[in-house]
## 1
Amino acid sequence: MTTGKLAISWTGAMLAGLLFAVSTAAEEISPEIQALLTRDVGGAADHPLTGRYQGSILFAQTGKAFDEIRLPSGPAEGKTFRPVEQKFASTVTAQGRVTRTVYIAPAGRSSLEVTANFVDALTMKGFEPVFRCAGDACGESFERLKYRWDKPETHVLGQGYDHLRTLFIKGNIFTSMTDLRYALFKKSEPEGESYAAIYGAVHSGSSNLYQRALANRVGVLLEIVEPHAMERRMVTVSAAEIGSKVASEGRAVFYGILFDFDKAAIKPESEPQLTEMAKFLQANPQARVFVTGHTDNKGTLDYNLALSGRRADAVIKALAARYRIDSKRMTARGLGPLAPVASNRSEDGQAKNRRVEMAEQ
C-alpha cells in the first residue's frame, strides 16, 4: 500500500515537472526583449576597419583612448570543471586605442560565415593572421576564459546602458555557445602595431528566457587595438603640498606612482613623485606613515587586495633603498577597491580609484 502511494506521488511529481517545463518553454519572448534585439545601442558605431556582417545589430560597445588588453594568441588549456587550471597557452598584450564591440547576427547563419566576413575585411586592410582556431582546437575552456558572466573584466558594458541590455551583457551574451571560432590578426605600421581579434559562436539557447531569445544567432566579440599615444596627465604632488594635505586631511593622494598592467614594479616615470615623497619624510623625521595601494573594481577582490599590497610595499622599498628613509617609519597596506574616491561605473572614476596614498599613523 505504501509503495503504491509512493508510486502515485512520484508520477505526480514527474507530471508536475513536465507541465512546468512545457509552460516555461511556451513562455513568449516579451516585446521589450524583441525590440532590444532589433536595434543598435545608442552612441556606438561600426569600426572602419571591419564594418559589420549584414543584418547584424550592434548590441554593445566600449572604447578607450588608451588602454592595455590581453588577447589570446594560442588555445585555452585546462578542463571546464577545473577553473584553477584554466589559462590561454599564450597571449599578446597590446596598448593603444581599444575598441570592443558585440554584434548579434541574424538567425540561421553559421559562425563560420559570419566570422569569415570579418576576416576578409581585415585581410583586405593588410592584416595578417597570428592565431586561428575552431571548435575543439580552441580548447575546452576557451569559452569560459574569453567571455563569462562571472568575469566582469570580460564584459562589454558601456555607460548608461539600461537594465535589460545590462542583464544580457552580464549574464547571457556568449553563454551556452556552440560552433566556436576565434581569430587574432596583426598589422605592423610605422606608428606601431594594430591587433584585431574576432570571437564568434552560435547561441544554443536554453531554458533561460533571455538566452532562448538569442537562440540560433551568432554572437561576435570584435576587439581592435590601434596605436595611440598615451596622454601625459601625471601630476606630481610637491613635498610642501604633501605636508599641507597630511596636516589638513590626514592623507595625501598620488597619481604619479605608475605600475605596469597587473604588476607591482614601479615605472621610471614615477621618480619625480617618489622624490617629493622622500623630501616630505626627510623634512619631517618624526613622521610615521601608512602607504596604501588602491585599485578599481576590475578583477576579484582578493586579487586586487594582494596586488595593491605589493604595490604599496614596492613604494616603501623604493623610498628606503633610493632615499634612505627608515622603513620602520612606513607601513604598507593594500586596500584594493575597498576605499573608492569615485564611482567605478565610468572610466574616469576607475582612473581616480587607481592610486597610492600616504596617511599619517
## 2
Amino acid sequence: MAPVITLASVSPRRQELLNQIGVPHVVVGAHIDESVLPGESPHDYVQRMARGKALAVWQEQSSLPVLAADTTVVLDGLTLGKPSDRGDALGMLARLSGRTHEVLTAVALATRSGIALRVSVSSVRFRTLSAEECAAYWESGEPRDKAGAYAIQGRAAVFVESLQGSYSGVMGLPLFETVELLRAANVPYWCKMPA
C-alpha cells in the first residue's frame, strides 16, 4: 500500500510502532538543533522539538502529512536527554535508580491545515540499580542514543518496577495520541501492510 504519512524520524522503534497499527509511511530524518533553551521547561521542550521536526520535514516535502515525535525523561524537574558519553549515562542511571521519573513524548502532525500536537505523560519507577548493572548496560550499547540513557523495550525492561501511562509513549511514539491526530486529519490506520 502507498504511504499515507511521512515519519520525521529514523528511529526503528517509531517505525515498528507505526507498522503495528497499520500506518504505511516513508521515513525522512529531521535535522534540527535539539538543545534545551535556557529556562525552558521539559514540557515546552518536547513540544517545541516535535513541532520543529514536523515543520522541518514539511518544508522539504508537503505531499504527505508529516508525523514527528520527541521524548524526554524528567527527574526533579530536569530534562535528561541522550547521554553525551559513558559517564553521563552512568550518572543518569544512578539518579533514576530506585526512583520514579516522568517520560514526556510529544507528537506533532503537520498537514495543509496546520500543525496539531498532543503530549503523553507517563510515570516510570526503577528498582534500585547496582553500579555493575549500569556499567554492563552501557557496554551493551543500548543507552547511547536514548533519552534518560535507557530503552524500556530493550534490556532496561528489567529495571522497570512499575509504569503508569503509555508503554508506547515511553518507547517514543504514544499510539493513542498518534491515532487521535491521524483520525482528526482523516489519515487512515489499520491499513493492510506488506508482508
